[in-house]
Amino acid sequence: MLHQLVYVSSSTEPISPDEISRILETSRQNNDRDDVTGLLLYHDQLFFQVLEGDQVCVQECFDRIKRDRRHGSTSVVWEYQVERRAFPQWSMGYAKPEDLSEESRSAAISLSKLLHKPADAREDPVIANLVQSVLSDFRGIT
Ligand SMILES: Cc1cc2nc3c(=O)[nH]c(=O)nc-3n(C[C@H](O)[C@H](O)[C@H](O)COP(=O)(O)O)c2cc1C
């Protein structure tokens, strides 16, 4: 079985396109090595990221990400064993809000509001639906 983890986080400062490129370069190197795949969305100091792969590798990756000073707080919104990867082709895909449909964009924005809620969001079916809506709709991602 594969492990899939989705979190939202806020960046401590606005992130430039160059910084995003550097994050993606490091991510792709490490994730290739660890057979981790996923997707990163960034907009307006908010990150939405999907990590999937072996449970230990995903956890180690997320531990590194949480220690990264470019983040403020991180909040896990989805964490399950899954049968198949959603993004088998990307060691770390990247999407901008304009790559998403209106529905997914508003789902991603709703998820980002969870950052300020201390409660564990993982058990909430509304949140699960929002995550699925974002996951099921990706177009034009590099
Ligand atoms: C938004 C964001 C997403 C990141 N995603 C990943 C990732 O998917 N994989 C990864 O290895 N590092 C990722 N990083 C970088 C890690 O936080 C960390 O800097 C890096 O893994 C350290 O790698 P090193 O120990 O090999 O230098 C991300 C950082 C940020 C800010």
TrEMBL record:
Pfam entry (one): BLUF
Family annotation (InterPro entries): Acylphosphatase-like_dom_sf, BLUF_domain
Ranges of residues in domain BLUF: 2-93
Gene3D superfamilies (UniProt xref): 3.30.70.100
Domain of life assignment: Bacteria
SMART domains: BLUF
Record SUPFAM superfamilies: Acylphosphatase/BLUF domain-like
Protein name from the UniProt record: BLUF domain-containing protein
Organism classification: Bacteria, Pseudomonadati, Pseudomonadota, Alphaproteobacteria, Rhodobacterales
